[in-house]
Amino acid sequence: MRKGGEYLGIGKLPYSILGEILSQIESPGTDVLVGPRIGEDAAVIKIGDTDYVMLVHTDPITEASSRIGWLSINVAANDIAVSGARPSWFTVTLLFPPNTDPVHIQKVVVEMKKAADRIGGKIVGGHTEVSPGISKTIVITTAIGITKNNQYVRTGAAKPGSLVFQVKPAALEGTAILAHDFKEKLIQAGVDPTVLMRAESFIEEISVVEPAVKLAENGLAESMHDPTEGGILGGLIELAKASNVSLEIDSSSMIVREETKLITEALGADWMKLVSSGSIIGTMKPEAVETAAKLVRESGLEFSVIGIVKEWSGFDVYLRDKGVYYNGYVREELSRLIEEDRSGV
After folding, report:
1. DSSP string of 284-316, one letter each residue
2. How many angstroms separate the CA atoms of 288 and 221, rounded?
3. Nearest-CA neighbor of 42 among 219, 166, 230, 225?
4. How far apart are CA 115 and CA 268, in angstroms?
5. Max intra-chain CA distance, the chain
6. What fold, for 2-148?
7. Digit-coded pLDDT (tens) for 24-47
8. CB proximity list for 61: less than 8 A, separation 6 or greater
9. What pTM value is reported for the model?
10. Would strands 138-148 and 163-167 be described as parallel, antiparallel, or unpaired?
11. What fold is seen in the domain 155-343?
């Protein structure tokens, strides 16, 4: 499909089209502190005359075929957590294709409940139906959280001179999905089945609720973002765009597992562009780094400084160790691989 000369493949809309759409649905008013903007993970709404705000985010699971109930809750929850609140309530829309086995429906719901219980949230409503015109299950989740007015964190709050950080490995979600959905192709490419088994288990690690909330509660994060579609690189571009800054990044300092490298190399994919729920990227003042690193590592998680924030310099992200500049939308690797697989490329 083409619109305005741009090809619309599977995945997020290009920023040029998305920006036009968002400009038509701006939400002015003193109650909406953060509305629909490129890169922002959640809307922030003031609660009356109180000192509290409500954070709201919606996300669909459309590409994975395994553990979609688990993914639906955790992915939406992560966006609330990196915005500074603990995700407390969820509503879920479940769309199933015709002739779906009721056992599958039950399995998805049980996974959702398990995921919500693990992070201390509750599923409070939603909608379920068998829908015409779809060939696989689609789950759309809205997550809600509440925090103090001075504690919410925006993607677009990065300031020049701050350091860019990463918590937890990149592409945990994408690696797990590829290991399951492309298993036969990966085995044919020579990837050891034990590598795929370990990679599939990464799905259990995609929550970032605890480290994100801790960083926010302790006032350590200047900005945070959940790098989903487009991977850690796409997330960094969104952070730069939302903050109107440029980021100089050392990709060799990024946290990534060997299983991710092996799987993406076998499929001819770039792990930096692979959907990355399970990681946090953000910025903080240099003086906050030592405390933040200690806080995260005491929880048994990885922390790395991967770059620095600069004044806008005509680009979004510069990978200085590779000498490569990025300015704008990058294609999500999972979407590309799925599209090529369906077309027989």
Report:
1. E-GGGHHHHHHHHHHTT--EEEEEEEEE--S-S
2. 8
3. 225
4. 32
5. 61
6. 60s Ribosomal Protein L30; Chain: A; (3.30.1330)
7. 777 667 888 988 877 788 999 999
8. 68, 71, 72, 75, 138, 139, 140, 141
9. 0.90
10. unpaired
11. Phosphoribosyl-aminoimidazole Synthetase; Chain A, domain 2 (3.90.650)
